[in-house]
C-alpha cells in the first residue's frame, strides 16, 4: 500500500482511476502540470511558471519516506514526502509543508495545514499559498496525471 492510499484509507476508492493509478505506482510517471512559483519560492529551487507543460515524476521509496523528483522543462523539483498521522508532509529544500488530503468529485487536493522554514514554524501570514490538485480525464485511464500547483 502506497503513501496516499495508506493516509486516505477507504476514501482512496473515491479518487478518479487515473489518480489512483498515479499514487499506487513507484517509478516514472508522465503527465501535464501547471505551476506558478513566486520569485521568492524560485530562490529555493522551485521551477518558473509552466502552463500545462509536460512533466515527468520519478518516485522511489526509502524506509518510510517517498522521494519525488518532478522534471519540469529544464528544472528538477525534488522533495521528500511522508505521513504524519492523517496528514502528508513534503520537504522541498528548506521548506516543509504539511497538508491534508481532500477528495472532491474524484480529484485530489492538498490543503496546507502548516509550513516550516529551516524547521521553524512560520506564522500563517508568511505561508506560501499552495494549491495542489490532481485529476483524471473522464474515462481515459491512459492519461497519467494532470495537476496544478501554485507556490506564492
End-to-end separation = 32 Å
Q: Give the count of helical stretches.
A: 3
Fraction in beta strands? over 45%
Stretches where pLDDT falls below 50 for ≥5 residues?
139-146
Tell me the Rg in angstroms: 15 Å
Q: Which SSEs are present, and which pair or pack?
A:
Blueprint: H1 3-8, H2 17-24, E1 27-37, H3 39-43, E2 50-62, E3 65-72, E4 75-84, E5 87-92, E6 95-104, E7 107-117, E8 120-121, E9 130-135, E10 146-151
Parallel strand pairs: 1-10
Antiparallel strand pairs: 1-2, 2-3, 3-4, 4-5, 5-6, 6-7, 7-8, 7-9, 9-10
Description:
The chain is mainly beta. It is built from 3 helices and 10 strands, in the order H-H-E-H-E-E-E-E-E-E-E-E-E. A 9-stranded mixed β-barrel has the order 1-2-3-4-5-6-7-9-10. Residues 139-146 have low confidence and may be disordered.
Features:
152 residues; 10 strands; 55% strand; globular
Would you kindly provide a brief summary of this structure?
The chain has a 9-stranded mixed β-barrel with strand order 1-2-3-4-5-6-7-9-10. The chain contains 3 helices and 10 strands; from the N terminus they run ααβαβββββββββ. β2 and β3 (65-72) form a beta hairpin.
Amino acid at each position: 500500500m502506497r503513501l496516499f492510499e495508506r493516509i486516505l484509507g477507504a476514501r482512496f476508492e473515491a479518487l478518479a482511476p487515473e489518480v489512483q493509478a498515479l499514487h499506487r505506482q513507484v517509478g516514472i510517471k508522465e503527465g501535464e502540470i501547471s505551476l506558478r512559483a513566486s520569485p521568492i519560492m524560485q530562490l529555493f529551487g522551485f521551477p518558473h511558471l509552466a502552463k500545462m507543460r509536460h512533466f515527468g515524476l520519478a518516485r522511489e521509496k526509502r524506509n518510510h519516506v517517498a522521494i519525488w523528483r518532478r522534471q519540469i522543462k529544464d528544472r528538477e523539483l525534488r522533495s521528500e514526502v511522508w505521513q504524519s498521522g492523517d496528514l502528508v508532509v513534503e520537504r522541498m529544500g528548506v521548506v516543509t509543508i504539511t497538508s491534508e488530503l481532500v477528495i472532491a468529485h474524484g480529484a485530489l487536493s492538498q490543503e496546507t495545514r502548516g509550513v516550516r522554514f529551516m524547521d521553524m514554524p512560520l506564522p500563517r501570514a508568511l505561508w506560501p499559498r499552495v494549491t495542489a490538485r490532481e485529476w483524471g480525464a473522464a474515462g481515459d485511464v491512459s492519461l497519467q496525471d494532470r495537476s496544478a500547483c501554485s507556490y506564492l
